[in-house]
Structures are given as C-alpha cells and as structure tokens.
Amino acid sequence: MLWCVGSFSWFTDDPINYHIIANRVGKQFKSFAQHLEELFFPPRCIGCARITKVEQYDWRFLCRACFASIPLQSGAICSVCGRRFLFGKKGGFGIHSACKKECFYVLAAAAPYRFPLVREIISRYKYNGVKELALPLSELLRAHLVGVGIPDLSIYSIAPVPLYEKRLRMRGFNQSLFLAEAVATALRLKVIGGNLVRIRNNKPQITMRDWDMRRKNVIECFRTRDASEIAGRNMIIVDDVSTSGATMSEAAKALKRAGARRIIGLVVARG
Description:
The chain is of the alpha/beta class and about 270 residues long. It has helices at about 1-15, 15-40, 65-70, 115-125, 135-145, 165-170, 175-185, 210-215, 225-230, 245-255; strands spanning about 75-80, 85, 105-110, 155-160, 190, 195-200, 220-225, 235-240, 265-270.
C-alpha cells in the first residue's frame, strides 16, 4: 500500500510525469493498432497487389520484384539542349562544348515518367501522403546517381527543393526533403536543409500546361538564407519530378548566386 501511495505521489507531484506516462501508453496503443491493421489489412504492393514481406526484403507498399521492373535511365541531361551525356573524368561534367557556357546545372532523372508504376508511386507518395514510399524512391535516386558515374560524389552536398510555408502546412510534409535525407544517409552526404527557401506562394506547376507559363510562374521564387554555407560547394538539388525544368532551373540559379560550384538536379523522373 505504501508503495502504491509513493508511486502515485511520484506520478502527481511532477506534471511532466503525466506526459511521460501518456506518451508510453500512447505508443503501446499505436503499436497495438498497427498490429491489428496489418493483421486484418496487410500492406500490399501498389504494383502487383500481393502482400508485401517487409520483415524480409520488401518495402511496405512496394515489393522488390515490382521495384526491379522499373527501368533506370542512363547518363545525365543537359539543361540547355536536353541531350544526354556521360560524366567526364576527374569530376568533369562532360557537357558538349556548344552548351558549356549556358549550362549552369545538369539534370539526373532516375526513371522515365511514362512508366506507369513510376507515376503511381510518385502520386501515392506526393499527393496521398504515403511516406513509406520515400524509401524505394530514394533507392532509385541513389542507384541512378551512382550509376551515372559522377567522380568524387563524396564532395557534394544535398539540398531539397523547398515548399512555401503555407503549402507545407497543407501537405504536412516536404516530399523532397524526405527523399534528400534518405539519399544523403545512403551515400553519407551532408544535407543542407532550410537554407534554400521558397519566397513566393506560386501556383502549382501541375496546373499549367504551357511551358512558358511554368517558367514565368517560378521566376525568382527561391533564395538562400546564408550564402556562406553554399559558397564553393558542389550541390545536388533533390525533387520528385521535373517536367519543364523551370522549378529546378530557378532553384539552381539561387544556389549559383550564393556561390555554388557544380550543381546536379536529381529527380525521380522527368515528365
């Protein structure tokens, strides 16, 4: 009885103990709810609909077989003419001479957007908030980045394309940040988050079909908070999709103004 009184006194004397107990109980209920959900509604692959085996080798909503069916693109893309090229030796970009002066960043797109499963994964991840899909998407990015043969990849830092604050609150998460952090962890690269910011709440690019309208929509919508953190660095900008290239181009310009050296725009797919 004395033990019970003493325990109750410990629980009530310090208000923070309420939070500790509530947090522990909440976690237990959450874990129990997840077990029930997986028992009655086990996770299924969005590609083939079979039950995934997360404890073995699958991701929660994508099996390894469907993941392996996604074709990886080869080479990088010139942001001026759109042609593909191979990275040169000693860290050189290998861009053809006609575009060297104007090409301030190159695009590395991991998979073709026309591939149905790629579109489905991106849509579920970005618009339905299925955050678990960040892992297979980031693995696509990592595999492509390594596969294009960038010399001295370890000297690059990673920055996600930011969302405007209002849109971030509406969506609940920045899909590019999740991807950037996962790729950085896999490749042991530094993430520079919060420096590149979006200063205008421009309309979503997906609502615009005209490429010139897309370009005008994002003109000068990015800036950096601390140029000294960017100056002299080689940067990788991460986003989910590049269609017209306007958003990635403006983000790269902001980093260039801050003094970035080489810039690679890394996306899951190019539309």
